[in-house]
User: What shape does this take?
Amino acid sequence: MALSSFGLPSTIDLHPKLNATLDLSDGFDGVSFDSTGGLLTAGALVSHSFGANDPGATAPGWLSTAKPLGTMNTSPAFGLALSFDLVNQTLFAIWGQNGLALPLPNVPLVGTLQAAPALPPVLLPDSKGGVSLGLGEVILKGMIQGQPVTAAVTVRTELTVTLMTSPSALALVPMGTPEISLTWLSASGVSDQVKQAIAAAAPQTIATMIPAIQIPLPSIPLDAVASSLAGKSATLATGSQVLLDAPSSHVYAYGDFVIN
Assistant: This one.
């Protein structure tokens, strides 16, 4: 089997959960073998074309936190490492095509809000050795007591990572109650009591609204192996170990392959 068969899908459609499509390209840039096994390294790009009015059209780009790959565990049959840069590329591509502009229904005391992050989300190491997701200047618009209101919210939430097998992806899932900062930009006619009640309820409300983000994982198409495997591919099996390593800015996954 050619090494070129190991890679990412060329396109991922995130509809209907998110209004976004991802275009992916990758290529090998290194290979080495020793007594413990082989190490393949590849560069990847996650992107999408932006419309003239999309937030990504004038944005300078995504935030890089690139660091050298750490030492991988060679005991499991297979190991995979993804740089935080791939995650931040993915988040930027989703945000840049306005894929995170979403209606937020059933907000206490408000009803439906329209939310649109003015800045791309960023995955960063945190002080506890884990990782957190930052959402800057999420602009919220809605009606309160018959008055139009606009607020800006900055959010930081800790993440956990789970493995998906169909499609083959890592799901970054917010956990706990996020830290938020809320600034009223326009709220004339709304009482301070209502504002304070909304601010008090905001962290728990926002915790239920931040979607899990899927980061695609490489798979091995099996068409060339046997005709009976046409259309199938090998991916990491359910139950594989997933580790977040802040010092190396990588996500590691270890386990066995399964055929899907």
In short: The mean pLDDT is 85.
